[in-house]
Amino acid sequence: MTELPSFDELREMAEKDPETLEALRNKMVNEVIERAPLEKRDRLKGLQFKIDAKIKTSRTPFESMCKIYDEMMDSFDELNAQLAGFTAAADKLQEDLKSLDKGEEKVENKVELKILKDK
Length: 119
Description:
Layout: H1 7-16, H2 18-35, H3 38-56, H4 61-101, H5 110-118
Helix pairs in contact: 1-2, 2-3, 3-4, 4-5
């Protein structure tokens, strides 16, 4: 695994030899991807492809950082919405299980809940 140079060395590379800095970035990203579990690598490569495209289509490093940040926040918002959906479903299931314990008839999917409860 390639060792990350010090901040001062990275800053000097950025100022004097940005191509070397970019090569180091690519090398380290690829090392991380190759260390990931096999089933995650294609997804990571696809994500890195999107990041590289945003970097290449940006006029400045700040612009590329903003584009990547926006992409990350969009993904976070999607994940948060999915989590909210799972939480709502879990809350409903818990409510239905309590109702089943009380013998209430209003429970939807009573048979499936009984099977889950008995496990």
